[in-house]
């Protein structure tokens, strides 16, 4: 069975966020146990499993981290659309509803995802100790993402953060997003972020598309209601995500590169 490793939200190999992609010919998934074992073996932030559908969408799509199945994943959806190579729009039935991916003439892929609502939170002192951060504001994102979003003072604070990932793995939410406005307006991006998903088996995720469904409305509200923004995820690999806020939907645009094309022998 064929498996690809695709770097998403980048135009070059060994950058962005790598995802595994397994495409099944038959309109059914294998067992959950088998997919979980493959995802653990691949050991990337997410591995996507997809098969043709005769239902409301073109395909059915699921995502697994090395530890759990997740309800929404941006970079592995982008990687899947890249692998399928469909020009125009392809739709996916997922745990977060029907999602679409549209490939433009220039090769850029735009995902249509549900916008994550934001609910203000009182900062959890234990979480702040684990992160080693003093936030400007704290919000919960959900329901598809179930993350905590912390706005920090500036870009340097985001980039310099060194959280205790072992302790963070015991935290209840799927992940923790830290973000700040870009220090330099001429940098080519409007805000920076990092994502820590230790509770889902992902220490620091290189580029998290789903987190941008919360970052888009958050920064739109702080940057004069602008609907078109660019986010920079400041991980070691790094990547840029173009976001376009459309009310209850958020468009995420990026590129992808296949770096490994191999075969599963089990």
TrEMBL record:
InterPro entries in the record? Phenazine_PhzF-like
Q: Which domain of life does the UniProt lineage start with?
A: Bacteria
Active-site feature positions? 46
Keywords per UniProt: Isomerase
The record's Gene Ontology cellular component field reads: cytoplasm
Which Pfam families does UniProt cross-reference here?
PhzC-PhzF (PF02567)
- Give GO terms: molecular function aspect only: isomerase activity
Q: Which family does it belong to?
A: Belongs to the PhzF family.
Q: Return the protein name.
A: PhzF family phenazine biosynthesis protein
Species source reads Paractinoplanes brasiliensis
Cite the source lineage: Bacteria, Bacillati, Actinomycetota, Actinomycetes, Micromonosporales
